[in-house]
Design brief:
With 286 residues, the chain is of the alpha/beta class. The protein has helices at 3-7, 39-55, 100-109, 151-158, 200-210, 220-225, 249-257, 268-271; strands spanning 11-15, 59-63, 79-82, 85-88, 113-116, 130-132, 138-143, 165-170, 183-185, 191-193, 215-217, 232-236, 239-244, 261-264, 282-283. The strands form 5 sheets. A 3-stranded mixed β-sheet has the order 2-1-15, with helices on one face. The longest helix is centred in the N-terminal third of the chain and has 17 residues, at 39-55. It is globular, with a radius of gyration of 17 Å. The mean pLDDT is 96.
Length: 286
């Protein structure tokens, strides 16, 4: 495991959900507004996730939830971070665009090199549509719903991917509107993938660069109901953790047999907005 890999998912941004609610019906397939958000339960679940991370050696830094910004808890979407640079997002949905200015200030206060994508007039939703292998040999930008295909060139111009192959992946299922709802690279080289989320070329590329033996195809239950691709992999010492909201018994056993310790922490209130744990954290240590 390289030094770069050891840093992955060890320093996170989170946003305490003081304003969280679901008020924008139809922004994704999950925002049906069939049942109201239990805000006290949501806060308890968020605190449980934060405590779980801290218990396994992860440093968490919190950005303030601005009044009225109901989706800011999903801070993975606010920026794309790599090598000390923060590329600020240009959100697809207008109600989220007010998150950009406090995000810029937050990163500047921590001495990140900040780039603003908004003047380029391209939709780009940060680490919601950006993923990378734990060893940093491959990185991916998803497009099709929230981020534009052309944003790949912008990211490549701003971010130094020396030593990392940077790929573009086409999302085709509305159930997987961000890349972080469709695939997850784990700390021992395995990749969880929901095949219907991708076009044929993109799915074949994922298999080619990771090796077919490392691909674990997951069920619709684990993707859509359990939001497993939205889990977080953490490597700490001799432990390989997967922190997620829920797992089918079959997938739980498969991961355990492969040497992963599966940590389940409830987060179902946030699924009402089409998000889960990975949506709610931004890896700022990479």
């Amino acid at each position: 495991m390289t030094n770069l890999a050891v840093r992955s998912w060890k320093r996170l941004m989170m946003c305490q959900p003081t304003s969280f609610d679901v008020i924008h019906q139809g922004h994704n397939a999950y925002m049906t507004m069939d049942s109201p958000v239990d805000r006290a339960l949501a806060m308890k679940q968020w605190e449980g996730v934060k405590s779980t991370f801290e218990s396994i050696g992860v440093e968490v830094e919190v950005i303030k939830n601005m009044p009225g910004q109901v989706d800011q808890v999903f801070c993975a979407n606010c920026a794309l971070v790599w090598g000390g640079k923060a590329l600020i997002s240009n959100m697809f949905n207008p109600p989220r665009r007010a998150e950009s200015e406090p995000t810029i200030e937050w990163f500047k206060q921590r001495n990140f090199e900040v780039y603003d994508s908004r003047p380029h007039s391209l939709n780009l939703e940060g680490c919601g549509d950006f993923a990378y292998n734990y060893n940093r040999k491959h990185a991916y930008l998803g497009y099709g719903f929230r981020s534009d295909k052309e944003s790949y060139d912008l990211v490549k111009d701003v971010i130094d991917f020396t030593g990392t192959e940077f790929h573009s992946l086409h999302l085709v299922s509305e159930l997987c509107y961000h890349l972080d709802t469709a695939m997850l690279s784990l700390s021992q080289g395995h990749v969880l993938v929901f095949p219907p989320a991708f076009d044929t070329h993109s799915l074949n590329l994922i298999k080619e660069v990771n090796g077919a033996d490392n691909i674990i195809e997951i069920s619709e239950e684990d993707c859509v109901d359990n939001f497993v691709p939205n889990a977080i992999p953490v490597h700490d010492g001799d432990k390989h953790y997967v922190v997620g909201m829920a797992f089918s018994p079959e997938l739980h056993k498969k991961l355990t047999d492969l040497g992963y310790e599966v940590l389940i922490t409830p987060y179902q209130e946030f699924r009402k907005s089409g998000g889960s744990i990975r949506c709610s954290v931004l890896d700022i240590g990479i």
